[in-house]
Each structure stands twice: as C-alpha cells, then as structure tokens.
C-alpha cells in the first residue's frame, strides 16, 4: 500500500472537532449536549437573504467569475466604506470562505520555509493552512493574566529572522475575544514597516466589538501595500455554510498572484454569492439585533463563568469566544470526561480544549475555549453543568 | 513593498481564461463571441434540483459536516453502484468541487519534491495544483497522430524515479476526449502495482462516453488501496457553479488524512450539497437527454472541423472537448487575433490555445482545445467563423 505524505501526518486534527466522536456517542445515548465548542452561531440568517434563494430563476447553475461577481464586490465596497475602509471592487477577491482566503494569502505571499509571526492562543486552523503552505508559524505568547492583550512588541521583534515574511493578526481575536487597541496596532505597523513584512489581518468578527474604544482595521493603518485583509460573511450574517469570504488588498501584485490560484479553482460558490449579496444592504436592523444579543450573552456568560469557584476568564471585548482557565490540571481530559462520563439530568456540555490553540505544548493545558453562540437560557444551563461537572470531576480525582 | 512568493510567480495563468480580457474588449464593441474555450455547459441544471432551492426552510445556513452530508454521500453510493463501483458512504468525502478534490489528494499523498506522472496534453489546472502542493509533474506525451491514446507504458516506466509517488489519469480525458481502453488501464494497473504508486483517477466526464467499448473506472481495477477517485457533479448535471466534488477511495489512511485538510477548511458548500443531492435520483431522463445532445453535437462538430482545409481532430470518444490542429504556426497568436481583429457580421470565436495543456513548451503550438458546449446552431456558426478566420489570417500572414 502506498504511504501518505509526511505533511499529511503533521496536519493536526481540529481541536474544535476532535472530541466530536465522544459527543456523537453521548447523543446516541439520548444525552443532550450543550455545544460551547464551535463558533456556529445559532442566530438566523437574514430572511432577506433566505428569500433570495427562492427567487433564483437561472436555468443553469454555471461558473461565476474566479474573482467573484462584480455586483457582490460592488456592494462590499459600500459595506467597507461604512467601516471607514475605502476600497474599490477591483481590490476585493471573493473566496470560498475565510478559510480559502487564509490559504491563498499564505501561498501568494510566502515560500516554503518562510516564517510568519502569530499571537498564541490563535485560531487553530491557521496552523493547518501554514502546514499546507509549508510555512513556519512562530507563536508570540499572550497570557490570560494580561487579558490576552498584544504581547510586548519586543517579543515580536526578537522572533524576526531573515525568513520572516509576515505577521498574522486576528482582530477581534478568535479564540480570546481580545480587540487590539489603536496603540497596539501602531506598534505592529511600525514593525511591519521596519522589516517590510506583510500584515495579514483576519477581521471576520469586525461587527462584534463591545468596547467603546474605536475599532481600527489594519486597512486604515496607512501601509496599503503591506496589509491584506482576510474576511468572511460567515459570522456576520450567520451564513457559515455558504462558504463566502474575501481577500481585500491595495497591493496589486498580491491580487494578481492570488487570482492565479483563484483561476485554478475556477470559481467561488455561486449560490453562496447570491445569498451574501442579498445580506449586505437593508440588514441594518438585523445586524443591530445580532449585536445586542451577543453583547447580552457575553455580559451574562462571562459573569457566570467567573462566579464558579476556580474558574477565570477575562472580559472579551469582541467576537463571541472566550478562553477560560479551569481548576483542573488537564482540560482536555476534563472535556473528554464531560462527554463520556458526566451527566446531569441527562445533559452535559462540550468545550474545546485550549491547548490546540497554542503552539507551545506546555501552554493552555488548564484552559478551554468557549463560544457563546447559544441563547441565554441555554448558556445558563451550560454554566450550571460546568459548575457541577467541575465539582464531580475534582472529587473523583481525589 | 514586500514581494510575493516565488511559487506565486511560477503559477501559470489559466490557458482557458487567459484571453478573457480580449474577449471582454470585443464584447464591449458589441461583437458576439462564440465561446469554445471553456467547459461551461449551456445545458440546463435538472429542474428538480433547482426546485429544491425554493424548498429550503432552514433558518440558519450553518456549517455542514466537513466530510459532507451523510444523506448526500448515501445517495452517491447508489449512483456509483449504477456504474459498477461499490463503495460505502464512509468512503466518500464531499469536496468544494473537483478542484479541491485534486488539491487535497496531492497534499495527502505526496510530499514537496515528489513526482507524479500525467499524460499531456492534460487538464491545465493539474499543474497549478501541483505547484500549489510543491510536487513535480512529469508529462508523458500522447499525440494527435495516435488519437491521444495512452502513450506506450514504457514511456511511463522510463519516467519513474525513486521520488515518483503517483500516476494521474483523466478518463475520459479533458482536453482530448480520449477514453482509455480496458487494455490500457490494465497496463497502468500493472505499473501501479509494480511500483506501489497511487493512481489518481479523474472521472468527472464518466457519463459522457460515446463508444461501444465498455467504460472502466479505475475503482474497478482491483487495486483498492492505490486508487483515489476524483469526481464532481459539475458537468454531469450542469452544476459547475455549486462547487461540489468528491474524493472516493477504499484507502482509509488516505481518507483520514484528507479529512484533516477538510476539517481545516470547515465544510463544503451547504447549498451546493442540497442541489447535488436532489440531482442524483429521478434524473435518468435528464441524463439521457444530455447524453444524446452532446453526442449529436460531437458528431456534427468533429465532422465539420475536419472538413475545413488544414484542420484535423481525432474523433473524441468521451467528454465534450477535442484538441484540434490548425494550419497556423502559432495557435495562440491566431486565437488572440480572432478576438482582437477578426469579425464576420459582427461575430468572432474564442478558443483555448492548446500549448497551455502541454508541459513541453515545444508541443501543441499549432493546436487549440475546443469545447462543444454550444447548441448545434451555434456550433455551425462557429465552424463558419473558424473557416473564414483561418483564411483571412493566413492571407494576412503572407
């Protein structure tokens, strides 16, 4: 039998999905599982967008342009303008989700063996796409004690080598919910300029910023040739399934190069583009309602977490995730145990062990990532389950 | 300004789409362009599948499973059974088009620097995905004189080195329309076994085989751990835009590895899966009508091409492409000229220069690839345009 590739062996399993078989087994026993592990919003997709599917009168579901429909890209320019980001439709390339946007940026901007700096804990799939592209990720550690603020800029600079080509930021951050301040971004800008690096800025949670500090997009930093924006409609409109993301940059050479990859994969999803386009305009009220809902959940959930003995999480300023330290030595073991052993009135909960979001294998061992994508009633139940589970788990350990 | 990657520079532009700017310019002058360059079928998508879009009553367009919906994979097992291919739903992974299926197979089975043998002329995007994955493609040349039959197996064997990990076949072939015979596939099988190689078999044109010789899928060769089937619903149901393909293999280790890549990109398109699933059953009549239409076009178009002085193409046995030699020295120059200079009653035609389908830069210079995805009436006009264009072009050259 021919053997698989070394890089395939090195690909990590998803820390978000790796415990899924245990959850499936629990469900087969009719146990209700509260999913705090995955960023699948429960909020509805805008009705306006769903209605658009019923209006499709195409006879043939043909390829769309490799760069995405012009009409969609034009509407996106208006959307970006509302966030103070001035781009033309030519500067937007539609991708198959934010996932493809990440991979294509890596491929177009870095060679195998090149290095990229990224904050840890960070979105785990960045590592998967980095392995796919053969690039090395150097993790700069942020800590729960500092509320996952930007690590000292000296830590970034110390990690730079002649192979360093880029810095990757997720702002607001998945998994920590941290929103980088204008001052922090200014420091990143100076470093990017000093070493002439690319700055990949993943801003898919842009709408979900709950602080009063003004949100700064990397596109507004005044380094147009260095910044590449990674974006997606998935979370914004509860449209994770349609797989529509985008790469936005003023750097024409990067766009031209990305387009060669886009042409090879022919086109982004046609139907998803139709839904995404219908979601952009006339959905102000929808967006405000989503924002208010997530903010209320955050306030409720974070407070509730910090009331459980031994549990601590900083207040996330954006997105809908938080990294939580638990009074256990091995959070993955605890997560597994919750799914396989712990039941309270036939219910349990699923969390993502945070170790998978760190590069350093010693970090985050007592942490989990939780997504508050359940209604407050369910979050209240999840909190109750967590409290009881911790008590039972730690008693069992003695 | 930071520079783009070397591999990005090496990515070829699509030979199918590279002349698009010239076509766009012609259209802006109100010139009607007959597109023979791209495999975008003009036939309708099954109405049953289009209707399914109107029935979607989901409130949230959420992620689907990374491996694709079970209900879709179950229906696919029935589809494959009708072609004599016995697989379980677990052995099918749904991908974002055949395009992603190709890339994920390369990533999962080969390391950077590994080698793969493929017939030239071949589907140009194989090269793009090979560059993406960092693997080397060694082209084994088939010739128009032999009707693009499988090159001598000795040519394959002579190209094998210690780094050779796979053979890639497209059957029926894009761009030649050739269908490999049972005897040819037997020779490939023996070579695959002798060197324990992977056999990637791209069979997306399976329904469109116009010969009486029985079609043999690589899945039926009796080398279950070596064969990886690359598939797509794009051409089968005129659903290129929905981006639904699949990887099918009995090799569990390959599937497990592919799944890690699939988890990183989260999920294939939700809406496309709904359309694809609705297309599989109850569309026998539709499929028969498509088949009859393509067959009639082939018979008409190939005959017409060979009646033009100096033009030659072998009879393709499958798919809806053919590679045509023209009485010109530089087919790309001729294709460009047709778009930029040639007009007959305000009309012209667009073809894909075949050189982009060869690895050897000296080959195919006087050839083009044509897709017969237009109705017979339009094909007749295209033939008339080609005849007149060749006459005018060659007169101009004197």
Helix content of chain A: 25-40%
Spatial gap, N to C terminus of chain A:
48 Å
Shape of chain A: globular
CATH class of the largest domain in chain A: Alpha Beta
How many strands, which pairing sense, and closed or not: the largest β-sheet of chain A? 7 strands, mixed
Biggest interchain interface, per-side counts: A-B, 81 and 81 residues
What's a quick, concise take on this entry?
Chain A has 398 residues and is an alpha/beta fold. The first copy, chain A, contains 13 helices and twelve strands.
Structural write-up:
Two copies of one chain form a homodimer. With 398 residues, chain A is α/β, with parallel strands linked by helices. Chain A is built from 13 helices and twelve strands. In chain A, the strands form three sheets. A seven-stranded mixed beta sheet of chain A has the order 2-8-7-6-5-3-4, sandwiched between helices. In chain A, strand 5 (164-170), helix 8 and strand 6 (198-202) form a beta-alpha-beta unit. In chain A, helix 3 packs across helix 10 (270-280), helix 4 runs parallel beside helix 10 and helix 5 crosses helix 6 (124-133). The longest helix of chain A is centred in the C-terminal third of the chain and has 24 residues, at 284-307. At the A-B interface, helix 1, helix 3, helix 5, helix 6 and helix 9 of A face helix 1, helix 3, helix 5, helix 6 and helix 9 of B.
């Amino acid at each position: 039998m021919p053997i698989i590739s070394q890089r395939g062996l090195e690909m990590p399993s998803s820390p978000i999905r790796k415990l899924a078989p245990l959850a499936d087994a629990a469900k087969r026993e009719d146990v209700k599982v509260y999913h705090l592990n995955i960023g699948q919003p429960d909020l509805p997709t805008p009705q306006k967008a769903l209605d658009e599917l019923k209006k499709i009168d195409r006879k043939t579901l043909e390829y769309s342009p490799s760069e995405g429909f012009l009409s969609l890209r034009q509407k996106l320019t208006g959307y970006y303008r509302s966030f103070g980001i001035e781009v033309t439709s030519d500067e937007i390339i539609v991708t198959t989700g934010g996932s493809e946007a990440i991979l294509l940026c890596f491929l177009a901007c870095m060679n195998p063996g090149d290095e990229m700096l990224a904050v840890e804990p960070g979105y785990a799939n960045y590592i998967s796409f980095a392995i796919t592209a053969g690039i090395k990720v150097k993790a700069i550690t942020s800590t729960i004690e500092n509320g996952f603020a930007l690590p000292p800029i000296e830590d970034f600079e110390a990690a730079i080598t002649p192979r360093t080509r880029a810095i990757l930021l997720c702002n607001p951050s998945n998994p920590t919910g941290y929103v980088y301040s204008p001052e922090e971004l200014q420091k990143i800008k100076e470093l990017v300029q000093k070493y002439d690096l690319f700055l990949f800025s993943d801003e898919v949670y842009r709408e979900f910023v709950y602080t009063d500090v003004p949100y700064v997009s990397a596109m507004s930093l005044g380094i147009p040739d260095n910044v590449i924006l990674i974006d997606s409609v998935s979370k914004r409109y509860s449209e994770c399934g349609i797989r529509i993301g985008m790469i936005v940059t003023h750097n024409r050479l990067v766009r031209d190069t990305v387009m060669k990859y886009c042409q090879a994969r022919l086109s982004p999803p046609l139907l998803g583009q139709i839904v995404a386009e219908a979601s952009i305009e006339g959905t102000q009220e929808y967006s405000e309602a989503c924002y208010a809902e997530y903010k209320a959940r955050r306030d409720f959930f974070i407070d509730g977490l910090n009331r459980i003995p031994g549990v601590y999480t900083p207040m996330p300023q954006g997105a809908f995730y938080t990294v939580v330290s638990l009074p256990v030595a091995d959070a993955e073991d605890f997560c597994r145990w919750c799914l396989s052993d712990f039941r309270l009135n036939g219910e349990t909960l699923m969390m993502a062990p945070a170790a998978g979001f760190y590069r350093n294998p010693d970090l985050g061992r007592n942490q989990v990532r939780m997504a508050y994508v359940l209604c407050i009633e369910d979050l209240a139940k999840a909190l109750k389950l967590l409290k009881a589970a911790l008590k039972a788990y730690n008693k069992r350990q003695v």
